[in-house]
Amino acid sequence: MSTVRHVVEVGDQIRFAGGVFTLAGLDGPRCRIVDEDGSVQVLLLTQLYADEDFCVVAGCAEPRRAPVWGPLASLEAGVREKALAWERHIREVETGHPEPDGRGAPREEFDPELRSLAEREAAKAAELTEQGEPVSVATVRRMRTRYRRQGVWGLVDGRTTRARSPWGRADERVVNAIRAALEAQRERSTGTLSRLRRQVGWLLQDAYGPGTVKVPPVATFNRLVHAVADGQGLLGPAVQQRWRTSRPEPPFTPTVVARPGELVMMDSTPLDVLAVLEDGRIGRLELTMAMDVATRSITAAVLRPRGTKAVDAAVLLAQTVVPEPLRPAWPEVLAMASSVIPYERLLSIDARMQGAAARPVIFPSTVVIDQGKVFISQCFLAAAEHLGISVQPCPPASAPAKGHVERGFGSVGTLFAQYVSGYTGCHISRRGHRVEDEACWTLPQLQDLLDEWVVSGWQERRHRALCHPLMPKLALTPNEMWAALVGIAGHVPVPLRAADYIELLPARRCAIGAEGIRFDYRTYDSKALNGHRQRSTAPDGKWEVHYNPYEPSRCWVRLPTGWAEAGWIHRTLVSRPFTDTAWRHIRTVVDQRAGRAEHEEHLARALDELLRRAGGKTAGTRGQEPATGLGAGPTGVLPQADTGVLGTREVSRLSEEEPNQDDADDPVAGTADAWEVFDAHQEAEQW
After folding, report:
1. Helix/strand/coil for 605
2. Confidence at residue 66, expressed as pLDDT on a 0 to 100 scale
3. Which end of the chain, C or N, has fewer beta carbons within 10 A?
4. Number of continuous H segments (helices) and E segments (strands) in the chain
5. Number of other residues whose CB lies within 10 A of the CB of residue 396
6. Domain locations in the chain?
């Protein structure tokens, strides 16, 4: 009995003009039909539908699909073998041969030339029943149909592939109550599962009445909670829950960086090391670091007491574009001239590379920051705008948005901090006994050690992320990657004047009175202020004053004629010696060798010596006043009188001669010269 169909497909048998035809092809409004004798006619579809006898006698057979083999690997061995056995049985029923090669003569009861298909199906059902697996003829026929439609996958027991609920047979009402309770506590402080169980009981009681839906036992409830919440960001510490909530919806597109400075990430974190602070107390430090994504280079790192200020982040930008000077106490193997960096080419276009350490000089195009007050402050944003750097804030509580620098902090802890005296461990449970007694380094000393480790340890350490897709086994170091990319992207020197460094400092509005400039209970005065006292043309009657929080001895005022420096009137009463006699550097000077293997060996020895020196206790322990003076705290950004200073990059000018043993205990005789580095005024004159 035929039924009228409004849609025809190739292969359908149709009734037309009193005869039965097969629809052989469709071409737009035309169709091709073939009768039982094989004659072909080409008609319009409208002619078919307009005919009174038109109807579809039989639809085309379902097309054969490609066999499904992949999911078979996920099945248990017994289920998979049973499906493959059924395939051999079906093949023998249809072709007479259980194997696809068709070798040998078929058995008599399955020979297609001697037995009909119905007889072969009955013979197979009887054979399987005799083997202890009762099977009817209808089952054999159903398995043949499934095999023709789905291949081997159609012969798999459907009970083994049935989708299972993640929470088993649990009551759906309990599952919904657990999910609602977890959503309600997302923004609350982290609690226990017992609190959650009580809250679920209250929800069930309010929704369905007392005693209607019971809360599962404790063990069952805990398993059910993990089944519902794991991987959904609904369970765990509150910080992790907020982080998962703030993440954008996947899929995520990876950021591709092709040149140095295209993307630089900046962040701050506490350093797991105790140090002797400026006032003699033992305290933790905070590390602010910038990392270039393209080369994985640490372009700058600044240590400060807990509570990083906006000026520290601004200094970080200035340090990134300035070469790292090679300190006199550092081995020559750390010089840029001894590394794989194309020193001669860079020196020809940037004279500042003369005597620089092997650390890239990268000008950032875009800086990725978090929502910390330090990085979103007006001082940092103004410094970035002054240097022409784009600032890209990442979403709140989204550590993966700046994952490169976050991973870099972990590497600093494992590769550097744990070797330093006063190491506290990354968690309170890993802290040793009386760690405070081990603290012996001052902040400038730790800064010098960290700078040396960045050049000798991090920049020469192979990084698995720095490899080419065509050479995945060849990992490069940050210096090697910068040397490769700088030849393509080029290097443009960005010299900074002394005025540029002043622009990076925080600013405030102050009046210039008869006694000078007064803020933070300090008074600053200078002859340069004469003629401008109480004569501001601004509506508020004040002047723009820039200052360094770590160097209160002076400030800078923007006058119509330019910057004017004003000194603290009591600066002569405060002594802040920048000396370093608490411990003596053991100088390890390694001559440059021609072979790269020898160079890497020298680097490894220098790094090992650095870490061993950092773990020493020769710098004065707790309870003893370090020979450096407790005033040897963080240095400033701008030069003192005749000494240029950029951040904390001091260069120790220690005497190469061994001091007399008699002078070792004399803090005056053992005092070294002052620390000095990059002279901003002299640098500006060169350009």
Report:
1. helix
2. 56
3. N
4. 17, 17
5. 11
6. 13-58, 70-160, 172-245, 264-495+578-686
